[in-house]
Write a structure and sequence with these properties.
mainly alpha, globular, disordered N terminus
């Protein structure tokens, strides 16, 4: 009876499950990281889908078209032609290199020169003025105005009976056929493009001016330096990063300009204002040559890429020099 009523003392031998808590402790953080990664990708999915549908797929299709001949109707009619579209752009008799690409570069350079000069003058003048909100509103109005509206207004201002010629006549000068003369058409559109984009340049340069320490100007005043010397020796050198950024962004904007030119001149008179973006539009929608249009787009892409790489190189050099 005593043996029957005695408690059973069976020694338990630790089995493989005894390591469970340690294993679960290691697997827990890994599961949480995977769960967080899945949640993060789910949040990114709409943006990734947007870029895939509206950027990657069109880019791949454009690359396909640049090496093919297609009239823009049936996908089964795509005929591979290799690099013929690219060689055709620079073949004898082609107008893409001159005047199209030449006009594009001149348009971009002119936009940079005018926008940079105008933004520096305006930003310097209004830096210390009161009512900064009012000035920001005034110089930002061209940016928030649609390009079509800006182009049409300036187009009528350039007319023989328009405001610009009215001012010239009031000063005793003859009227100028701004948009009808091949010699003045491109510079006239450059002026409008620079006026429309100068607001963003002023905003960037104003921020750059605000970042210059006042102690430099106080020291220059104690040394008796004049305004021109202060601007040349202090303001311009310290504003160089902002000026470089404005120069590059304005140049890229000028290279891709399309809407303003098609509204004001449609590439005319003749081919005086024909630029790369307008030529791509014309090849695709007027002539039905989507292959040549895609090849021209990739040539313009290479030009923009080279300018961007030059920007990165210059910024890197400036950072190393600093």
């Amino acid at each position: 009876m005593v043996n029957a009523l005695a408690p059973e003392t069976t020694e338990r031998v630790p089995g493989p499950r005894s390591a469970g808590p340690a294993v679960d402790g290691r697997r827990g953080p890994a599961r949480r990281r995977r769960r967080q990664a899945v949640v993060g990708y789910l949040f990114l999915a709409p943006t990734l889908l947007f870029f895939a549908v509206f950027l990657i797929l069109p880019l791949g299709f454009a690359l396909l078209l640049s090496t093919s001949r297609w009239a823009g109707f049936d996908l089964g009619d795509i005929d591979p032609v290799g690099l013929d579209n690219f060689t055709g752009l620079f073949a004898d008799g082609s107008t893409f290199l001159a005047p199209v690409l030449t006009n594009t570069l001149l348009f971009a350079l002119g936009t940079v020169a005018l926008a940079l000069a105008g933004s520096v003058v305006v930003a310097t003048c209004i830096d210390n003025l009161r009512f900064q909100g009012l000035w920001r509103t005034l110089y930002f109005l061209p940016i928030v105005t649609t390009v079509v509206a800006v182009g049409n207004v300036w187009k009528y201002m350039y007319e023989p009976g328009g405001l610009v010629n009215g001012v010239l006549n009031a000063l005793g000068l003859d009227s100028v056929a701004f948009l009808q003369d091949p010699d003045t058409a491109l510079p006239s559109v450059v002026v409008v493009q620079a006026w429309a984009s100068v607001g963003s340049a002023i905003l960037i340069l104003t921020a750059g001016l605000k970042s210059i320490p006042e102690s430099y100007y106080e020291a220059a005043a104690l040394d008796g330096a004049g305004p021109v010397t202060v601007f040349r020796k202090i303001t311009l050198p310290l504003l160089r990063p902002s000026l470089l950024f404005v120069c590059i962004t304005q140049f890229l904007t000028g290279l891709q300009s399309f809407a303003l030119i098609i509204v004001m001149t449609k590439g005319g008179p003749g081919d005086a204002t024909d630029v790369a973006a307008l030529e791509m539009y014309r090849q695709a929608f007027s002539y039905g040559d989507w292959g040549t249009a895609s090849a021209a787009a990739f040539v313009l892409f290479v030009v923009v890429l080279l300018v961007t790489l030059a920007q990165l190189w210059i910024f890197r050099r400036k950072g190393e020099d600093a």
